[in-house]
From TrEMBL, chains A, B:
Signal peptide: none annotated. Transmembrane segments: none annotated. InterPro entries: NUDIX_hydrolase-like_dom_sf, NUDIX_hydrolase_dom, WH-like_DNA-bd_sf, WH_DNA-bd_sf, WHD_NrtR. This is NUDIX domain-containing protein. Residues 35-135 form the Nudix hydrolase domain. Residues 158-214 form the NrtR DNA-binding winged helix domain.
Length: 230, 230
DNA sequence: TCAAAAGTGTTGCCGATACACCCATGT
DNA sequence: ACATGGGTGTATCGGCAACACTTTTGA
């Protein structure tokens, strides 16, 4: 908190970006993330998380967004701080503390993503051999995603405004890596009160048209609980 | 991650220290924390979290420990990263990013704490008017403590090696601020498998001598679950 | 008419709560 | 003896997993 000038220490902000895409072989939805190829030492040529130095006039989250816009063209809505990594030896020849964010992008945002020359997407569970300690960071972010989806309605962040409960269930299944019972899933989600029906239905399927829902974070479960107990 | 030199930006590490002490009026156990009086601008004279600039050759957690040892004489065992605070305007006249840790100290550690001239302890729920954004940080740390104690066996970190279940329950009650049913609490804790009986009993009480337990993080619940399902 | 997924109903199990009750010690 | 907290037993309630069953569409 004091004004000591720090010479060799630099502060970077990086982001773990998660999107859902079909797996190349199985076709099943899985978690993917974009990586950036390093074009200088250290770790020249290796893949790394998108990131960059923190600017003087930027908040931490703003820095993460700026880097994402520059490297991948993404402007995601959900963005959350993950952890600060600052081991002395994590970057050869320099002291770099990285404050890492993680983010979820929707299919429409994902579609707008313009992969630059040195940007490529990978299945999140397969990534390894990244620059710096980024293997550990990706692992940590994946754990957080899988933990948080079980107690927080973040799955909506993977979907567009209107969605069916089957689509929402696909998100959970992709993230958790296992099938869920459609009947029980429906009841769980509706009991939370985090979605509300739009009244519209999805047509064109070869079966009964599913109802469309929107996420309802303006009237979360807590409010309902207060009303119920009152 | 690049080597750009950063001039005006400095990185500090601060820590929210939690200990349990009896409340002055009610006598009931509550959460306390030590604060340090600032002796320079900005916020000269106000109370602030213990902290200091990050040294080049120190890991983040090591920096937190060093500051604690210097200001309060504490060497706590439980130490966890809380959050990185880096809003542009959080420190007048300078850009400071603070990586904040939180820690729990045991009564014996607490007893060793030598309060310096400018160090004073306060009930955690009462603190306000701190320097910088430290009010927000303390609030955030308290929320984390109260959330985490419900799903993680961190309460042990408030106790010495041997303790009774009643003492452990007092910790929960102090943190959560409400009474717990002794019978059900006992079953919950034992079902977790995070404590094991030492075989010894606490004597000198005016009632039946309670059994003493130690924390058992070497054989956590997960191991038992695997054995059960095998 | 059939396949396929949407959506509803029902049952059984498990964990948590509430609370009655017995146990062992100091005074 | 009795007060006090330690410790055990048990009934009840609610949530969740499993799964049978009905509904509605396109082909």
């Amino acid at each position: 908190m004091t004004d000591t000038t720090q010479q060799r220490l630099s502060l970077a902000v990086s982001t773990v970006v998660f999107a859902l895409r079909p797996h190349l072989r199985t076709g099943r939805l899985t978690v993917w993330l974009p990586l950036v190829r390093r074009i200088r030492e250290p770790y020249d040529g290796l893949w790394a998380l998108p990131g960059g130095p923190l600017e003087d006039d930027q908040d931490l989250a703003a820095s993460a967004r700026a880097t994402l816009a520059r490297t991948t063209g993404l402007a995601p809505r959900y963005l959350e701080q993950l952890y600060a990594f600052g081991d002395v030896d994590r970057s050869p020849g320099a002291r770099v503390v990285s404050i890492v964010y993680w983010t979820l992008v929707r299919p429409d945002e994902d579609a707008q993503a313009i992969d630059g020359e040195n940007v490529e997407w990978f299945p999140a569970d397969d990534v390894c051999g990244l620059a710096f300690d980024h293997d550990v960071i990706v692992r940590y972010a994946l754990d957080r995603l899988r933990a948080k989806i079980t107690y927080s309605p973040i799955a909506h962040a993977f979907l567009t405004d209107e969605f069916t409960l089957a689509q929402l269930r696909e998100v959970y299944e992709a993230v958790l890596g296992r099938r869920l019972d459609p009947a029980n899933f429906r009841r769980q989600i509706l009991a939370q009160g985090t979605v509300e029906p739009t009244g519209r239905h999805l047509t064109g399927t070869s079966h009964r048209p599913p109802a469309l829902y929107r996420s309802n974070l303006a009237r979360p479960r807590a409010t309902l609980t207060i009303e119920e107990t009152a």
